Amino acid sequence: MSYLFEPVTIGSITLKNRIVFAPASMGRDALSWYEKLARGGCGMIILADLSVVPSLFGAPGLGSMQYADHFRQIIKICHTYDCKVSAQLFHPEYDIRLIRELYQTLGQTDPQKVRQALNDSIETFCDTLTPERIHEILHDFELAARRAECLGFDMIQIHGDRLAGSFTSPVFNHRTDDYHTFWQFPEEMVRAVRTGALHIPIDYKLTIRTEDPAYGRGGISMDQVPEFVRRLERCGIDSFHVSLANHTATGDTIPMANHPYFTGEACFSRLALEVSRHTAKPVCCVGKIQSPEAAEELCRGGISLIGMCRQLIADPKWPNKVFENRTDEILRCLYCNRACVGALKGGRGVSCILHTNEEETL
Ligand SMILES: Cc1cc2nc3c(=O)[nH]c(=O)nc-3n(C[C@H](O)[C@H](O)[C@H](O)COP(=O)(O)O)c2cc1C
């Protein structure tokens, strides 16, 4: 019995299947990527890293309506293929006002200094925010959520890493006021988003630090999962997207084939399964999911949504090929990170080393 192609309901929306393109900043050519992914058959695409404040390098975000047409176009294209679109909202984990000023004065002459200031800011930003500034940021979330709903996004994903990841982790959060708990800021963030977007579901990208062995710096620990899930549900969260916590170590959250620990398929499934034990809401598992067999097994084990990022970049037609029993035609991701993650680091658009003759393979 196949679960993968059964519809699944999240709050007020229903996806045609359980396959989700996990959030990935696509850089240049994003529009044509989303078209390929939607045409390839996935049930939902999550548009990554949409900042709730105007971003540093002018990446499309929801800090204003500047990119409204761009988003409307993506949503329209995806809907043509009955593919839902979610907006991943985040606030940077560093002081964007400070870094913007530095970038304007030193960006050309001393970019290294700006990079260093940004890294330093990540370590301290959460602790130095005044309650007034936190309330401004929460208001930014509310406004961005309202813009997302107005533009026709089907869902909002709150990015539980980035600034939220700092607030949830004792590595960054040394506050002594109300915001010292791992739940206060996320709870207020969810409420703010709910105030802004009244009708569409809200998903939370829940990021977990593991202790044995230790991976991830932001995010909550495994033993905090039950309380965190319960609290977010009470604030109105409709689903969870579970991953390893980040903060500077993308080599772990986007693990390559030769990663020392996250080696096999569905490498973060332990985390997602733990979350699913504490909620009846849909849970999305992500991390090196590649074969239909592994995806089906996760669905049988209580996971409602299958998040795939690099495998769908390698072969956006994966869903249709699986549905049509053409699995031998699937281009298998090598998890080399060269043209996807590598391209982003180099400031180029995402691509894949398997697409030497793109028109032929896609
Ligand atoms: C090129 C690239 C960019 C990514 N950008 C984001 C991002 O902006 N936000 C996010 O939450 N995750 C991002 N991710 C992480 C993915 O959503 C996913 O969690 C990770 O790649 C593991 O899934 P996979 O093994 O299926 O690729 C990115 C991944 C890749 C490969």
Bound molecules: flavin mononucleotide
Q: What percent of residues are in strands? A: 15-25%
> Any idea what the CATH architecture is?
Alpha-Beta Barrel
H/E topology pattern: EEEHEHEHHHEHHEEEHEHHEHEHHHH
For the terminal residues, how far apart are their CA atoms?
29 Å
Main sheet makeup = 8 strands, parallel, barrel
**Briefly, what CATH class?**
Alpha Beta
Q: Kindly give the count of domains.
A: 1
SS summary, helix count: 15
Shape: globular
The strand line-up of the biggest sheet is 3-4-5-6-7-10-11-12
The amount of helix comes to 25-40%
Radius of gyration: 19 Å
Question: Could you state the CATH homologous superfamily?
Answer: Aldolase class I
The unreliable regions are none
At the fold tier of CATH, the topology name is: TIM Barrel
Q: What is the average of the pLDDT values?
A: 94
Q: Work out the number of β strands.
A: 12
Structural class by secondary-structure content:
alpha/beta
How would you explain this protein's 3D organization?
- There is one protein chain.
- The chain has helices at residues 30-39, 68-80, 96-106, 111-128, 131-151, 162-167, 184-196, 225-235, 250-253, 269-276, 292-300, 310-314, 318-323, 341-345, 358-361, and strands spanning 8-10, 13-15, 19-24, 44-51, 84-90, 155-159, 202-211, 214-215, 220-221, 239-244, 283-286, 305-308.
- It is α/β, with parallel strands linked by helices and 362 residues long.
- The protein has one domain (8-361): Aldolase class I (TIM Barrel, Alpha-Beta Barrel).
- The strands form two sheets. An eight-stranded parallel β-barrel has the order 3-4-5-6-7-10-11-12, surrounded by six helices. A two-stranded antiparallel sheet has the order 1-2.
- α1 runs parallel beside α2, α3 runs antiparallel to α4 and α5 (131-151) packs parallel to α7 (184-196).
- The longest helix is centred in the middle third of the chain and has 21 residues, at 131-151.
- The two termini are 29 Å apart.
- The model has no long low-confidence stretch (mean pLDDT 94).
- It binds flavin mononucleotide.
